[in-house]
Amino acid sequence: MVQVRVHAARKSGFSDVGSLFLAAAASTAGVPWTVTNLNVPSGGYESFAYGVSGGQQAGSILASVRRASLWSGSAASWVDLNPAGASSSAAFGISGSQQVGSALVGGATHASLWSGSAASWVDLNPTPALESEAFAVSGGQQVGIVYSGSFGTRATLWNGSASSSVDLSPTFGTSYSIALGISDGQQVGWVDEGGSQRASLWSGSAASWVDLHPAAAVYISNAFAVSGGQQVGRVFTGEAFHASLWTGSAASWVDLHPAGATYSEANGVSSGQQVGRAVVGGKDHASLWSGAAASWVDLHAFVPAWFDSSTATSIWSDDHVTYVVGYGNNTLNEGGTNEALLWTHEVSTPRLGRDRLQPRGP
Fold first, then answer.
1. Which CATH superfamily is 52-268+276-296 part of?
2. Residue 215 predicted with pLDDT over 90
3. Residue % of the chain over a pLDDT of 90
4. Residue 16, C-beta contacts closer than 8 angstroms, at least 6 positions apart
5. pTM for the full predicted model
């Protein structure tokens, strides 16, 4: 089964310097973003943060095995979510008190739901599915994929239990579909139709499917996250992938690709802001937008110089602080290893409401 978000682990030497908090490096006068390293210093060789909500972050660390992880703003706050009996796990999304991801149980990947602890684990793998994964959660609902052999891989919606699964694939003949984001009753992902990947939007059922594939797309468009009526992802324009923003239809597509970048994608959205990555000078740069290509902010500029690349995966805002999570490659570690990062920024103008967000696709 395709592992959509779990990155290949690279075991290497560990640098204590790389595990230090990074706030001081980005809190000098005039710099608006503070960056904190979430990597667990005791045995955590590599880590990723994929989701953020309400001051908590979800992701994974790799020590002897990959372990689903939960943080509350610091490396010291780390909680191990790996359930008993699982040989590995990862958390990909978070909203409120719930986290979602996958766990390897008996040699098969099972979509998973947690409520803040390993003991709270709920197996979402429906009968008779062979494997499954969950990627995002909001309002007590979860989205992901289910693999059932002859029926292929299907975008799936759950309501907290394995038996509650709903197939979102728009047609019976669809060989591959995936749901990666959910918020406010909407789900996003993509559908493979005859070899063409088409960014997709649902509202709780297969019949509600909306094709977001814009006219500018060449074969591939993917939606990764949704919030507040906005959807984000990427579109292949024929020359490169471009970070993309929609508001419910293919015709609403906005190209977020920043000038000078050779690749870009948007992985998360909240309160009218989008995050992702842009390849600049051959390196990934964590990125922030506010609805237009010209609004691009290079979040990599606030990461210490020994990180040679970074990616932002998710964003969440309350009335006071904007939180962005992702990871960066720490070159102080032998061979360079990815470490989970948290960017925070005080909101100068109070925002109305709170959005719940989820992140990135392949």
1. TolB, C-terminal domain (2.120.10.30)
2. yes
3. 79
4. 41
5. 0.89
pLDDT band for position 51 (cuts 50, 70, 90) = very high
Token pair, residue 324, equals 């962005």
Q: Can you tell me the mean pLDDT for 117-135?
A: 96
Contact of 81 with 114, CB cutoff 8 Å: yes
Residue among 53, 80, 85, 77 nearest 69 (CA) = 80
Nearest to 158 by CA among 75, 118, 100, 243: 100
Among 97, 170, 116, 112, which Cα is nearest to 142's?
112
Domain spans, the chain: 52-268+276-296
State pLDDT tens for residues 139-185. 999 999 999 887 789 999 999 999 999 999 987 556 799 999 999 99
User: How many other CB atoms are found less than 10 A from the CB of residue 175?
Assistant: 14
Amino acid 311: pLDDT: 98
Residue type for position 174: T
Q: Which residue has the tokens 């609004």?
A: 295
**94 - beta bridge partners?**
99
Which among 255, 205, 248, 207 is positioned nearest to 234, based on CA atoms?
A: 255
Q: Residue 252: which H helix or E strand, with range?
A: none
Q: Across-strand partners of 186? A: 183
Helix (H, G, I), strand (E, B) or coil at 312: strand
- Is the CB of residue 231 less than 8 Å from the CB of residue 269? yes
Residue 359, both tokens: 């992140």
H-assigned helices in 158-247? none
Decide: 75 and 38 in contact? Cβ < 8 Å.
Answer: yes
